[in-house]
Amino acid sequence: MSRISRFRPFRVVLAFEYLSYLRNKVYIGITVAMIVLIGIGLSLPAIIAGVRALGLADPQTPAQPGSKDTVHVIDETGLMADLDALRQQWPQFLFAPAERAELDHLKQTVHEGEARAVLVLETPSRATLIERRSQDSLPAELSDWLTARSRISQLTALGLDEDTIGQILAESELIWVETVAEQGKATQQTYFYTYLLMFLLYITVMMYGQLLASSVASEKSNRAMEMLITSTRPLNLMFGKVLGSGLAGLTQIGLFLLAAAGFYALNRAHWAGIAFIQSVFDMPPAIIGYTVLFYLLGYFMYAFLYGALGSLASRSEDINTSIMPVILVIMAAMFISIFGMLAPEATWLAVFSYVPFVAPMAMFVRICMTDVPGWSIALSVALMLLTIYATGSLSSRIYRLGVLMYGKPPRLADLVRLMRQAGR
Description:
The chain has 424 residues and is mainly alpha-helical. 69% of the residues lie in helices and 5% in strands.
């Protein structure tokens, strides 16, 4: 038999599994729904801006006197001869003038929720904001705004013009620099997209592995597997199913990433001031490549185990019990990687990046958050490839025995004994 003829059943199984996912209504529905949600989420600022431009909504409606959005202002500095500047800056609040003698009464209104806060301007360099609890970013915004206004007032009193004042204030801005020499990579810039992509790896490997195990158990329960197992080699069936499911997952991830990149490109201007979003979409292109690489490595490593353990279940109801060991290993790998994000240069994380079933996530964290030598990545990938080959060969033998076994799933000792007998 020629090599082409031997691989033909594998290609048939691969194409069948892959196309089955693409035609599945649930798969299509989830894919479309996620793309729509991604589009709405990334377009939300543009949608809100459009609604405001049409005058259909005005979330910045000025507060009415006596409402819970009132901010009482006690000005002992004379900087706020009138409160129009504050009202223009925060039109959603009502800034009302008050006297020091009323302070105790005003504190009580804040405590009872009848007013938002009391702002006491004591000196040009000291102000106090009294509020019941921190509800938003108002305290920080007020602090920055009042500081800038106080500086402008003092510089103006020295006879400086507006251009000179603007230049002085711009040069006095603190620039926080996190150097590559100290941190390997800027932690704040990499943390968000590392966590996001690692969680994506975890969810997809878990989801498609369980779908694969369910598919095997379903075929076994309706006795279709008995016909398939006699028509082609178990290795072709196992590898065809695993690769077909993996390609379906990769297709879905690719569509999600493309949709996110496309909608972000359309709405980039609306996200310019949000560092979290910018750090996610400004990630190096190499990180996308590593995402695909470690998804494939992680998926195939676990998928063979999912397929083998799924073949031991005689009913769909027994799936969760059969695959529980694999789920526990994936969860352990996820927790190790999450803790590793807090100390990406730790020695213990480097060790776990070479442990095959933890490496897809642990090495991914190290690559995203530190500088990892090329030989280290190559060694980790090589160990994972060897593990995939070993688990694939072992799983195909378990699969060949499991699909013809019915009733209670065999114990580990019984399974080892049967595999030894089959190998003789």
